[in-house]
Amino acid sequence: MTIHTGETFEHVYLNEPTVDLHIVQEAGSRVKIHVVDMPGDKAQGAKVNSITVEQTGENCSTEIYALAYLKGNEQVSTDTHVTHKVGNGTSNQLIKFVLDEESRGRFVGELKIAQDAQCVEAHQTNRNILLSEKAEMRTQPQLEIYADDVKATHGASTGQLDDKALFYMQQRGIGKQKARQLLVGAFIKDVLMTISDEELRERLLNTIDGIVE
Hints:
Elements: E1 2-3, E2 8-14, E3 19-25, E4 30-37, E5 47-55, E6 61-70, E7 75-84, E8 90-99, E9 104-113, E10 120-130, E11 136-145, E12 150-159, H1 163-171, H2 176-192, H3 198-205, H4 208-211
Parallel strand pairs: 1-3, 2-4, 3-5, 4-6, 5-7, 6-8, 7-9, 8-10, 9-11, 10-12
């Protein structure tokens, strides 16, 4: 798929059976992608989301947001490949997993900035929460930066809910389950709030309490 000069491509992939995108951006184009996986029937095997974006023209903007909330034996792998072939472009990746019960998550994020791609700003962030001792997350960020004049950051973390925050909330009369819902909900909202479609955004935000146990 080619996003031509000055065009915008924006789409939310919600509980799609598979997401496999290869996007080429021409000068001045804008791409904004959300991949959202909520609890459902993924027992037939691991789902793979693959997103490849190549900026081939200057002044491009790329945004990739992914959220996976998994339960049971669900498995989701999200692979992103963003390449800045020319300069004066921006990219931002925010990938989050919430893993409960015996679910499995995997993130592979590849960010490349070519030698001639000066004045690029690129960010890649992966954050994960494990709600069960049996849940498992694997993360593999990969950065290849060959240009000198760039601003690039990346970060990846995997942990459990903050026990101190849970205790603090319970001390103020909030039940454990509600406190858990609030903390996980705040973690999820960080991604959902970036959805431009107001109706869809509000619908997803309203489902949080129903899926967080």
